[in-house]
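Dear V.,

Thank you for sending over the compound details. I've combined the ligand you provided, flavin-adenine dinucleotide, with the protein sequence from our construct and run the structure prediction for the complex. I'm sharing the raw inputs here so there's no ambiguity about protonation or stereochemistry in the SMILES, which I know was a concern on your side last time.
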Amino acid sequence: MNTFQDSNSAQSRPSDDVAFVPTRAAGLARLEAFLPRAAKHYATRRNYALGPSDCSTVSALSPWIRHRLISEEEVLEHTIARHGLEAAMAFIQEVFWRSYFKGWLEQHPSVWKSYQEELQRARDALDQNTHRRTDYQSAVRGQTGIACFDHWCHELKLTGYLHNHIRMWFASIWIFTLRLPWHLGADFFLRNLIDGDPASNTLSWRWVAGLHTKGKHYLARPDNIAKFTQGMFNPAGQLARDAEALVEGCDHPFVSLNVTPTWLPSDSLHVVTAEDCTPEQVLSDTNTGTIGLSCLTTEHQSALVQSFKQGAVRDALMRQDKPYDMVETDTWADAILEASETAGTSHVATAFTPVGPIASKLTAARDRLSKKGVTLTLVPRRYDLVTWPHATKGFFKLKKKIPQILADQGL
Ligand SMILES: Cc1cc2nc3c(=O)[nH]c(=O)nc-3n(C[C@H](O)[C@H](O)[C@H](O)COP(=O)(O)OP(=O)(O)OC[C@H]3O[C@@H](n4cnc5c(N)ncnc54)[C@H](O)[C@@H]3O)c2cc1C
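Below is the predicted structure of the protein with flavin-adenine dinucleotide bound, written out as structure tokens.
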């Protein structure tokens, strides 16, 4: 069994081919290396979680796709070109899960708002409840005594990545065995996952809890863990065997999408954020310069997460014709105003930012910019425009549309 007790030992470190380098070139190279396994191998092996030194059952592409260093369209295009639609359907459907969650959250934004409020409440409760605080600290320190859970906790902190099946087991143990609030677990993931994503993360935790598909929750079973870790772990007798799905006292109303194709003035200043690091695929060729914006370093994200995000924005900037410096700040309006003045334009454009902290920052900046006569335009990707309208209910509704969406995209 691998161990993370001694995180300096060569054995406990992730191997080089699962290191996450925040460049588009590295993402494309990972895609190229994975493609031969994207059809039958992925379909039959993807549920096996063999540890951080062996990501061969999955693609481990999520850090790049999440920041759009490589796009969903590119991943789909290369996969279909190599294998055709039918043979690679299992993998293609997984790529669409990301689109589904993003589109769904965009149309139910109160889920993100209430998650943040409940998270604050759960954090406050930790200050007041010593038992709860001790349990929480044992969980995030990987000291619960449940060997698999503790191991995965260290693996997450060390690598910034967990296999999908491990994420499901981890969230299930957190909620139903350790009986900790799901909001704290989702927050722990967002701080430590390099691919941490408001939509996929929040909605996956809610799915495990039985809140996304109401009443249908996911209970991790020891025999399932033993099978898919190939005997590395078997927490027999340690996990909750019966537990009810969680319930919540509010509904989350459907809100129509507010995303439309947009025309851009040719003298726009382009802004790159960690939400979309191939602006050249979204924004027009003509511009007066490109500025990269990154959040100030915070304690809320691990060093691995922060350095990937900063590296990704820097990499995007380096691919632009007229790059300005990357600005690391929390007052984005000031940075944008200064750059637009230097560029001599009152038009600023960026790729559309879905629900999450970056969208909130841009919304706040937009109000200040408009007071100074500067317009901020959010330009959506065609892929999102054709996919998100189908993400209103369960995944099945979108799944049925996959062939049509791909055809619309010319794939
Ligand atoms: C509790 C929990 C929390 C999660 N949090 C995140 C998160 O913060 N960010 C994130 O990107 N994913 C999250 N996921 C989804 C999924 O686990 C990861 O996207 C996937 O494991 C990434 O690894 P991979 O690239 O090797 O995936 P592969 O299996 O190789 O899949 C290929 C691509 O398809 C997409 N994908 C696959 N499975 C899912 C899924 N279940 N949901 C959404 N997209 C998927 C990803 O873009 C992934 O890169 C979470 C899942 C769970 C159960």
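A first observation: The first helix runs from residue 24 to 34.

Warm regards,
I. M.
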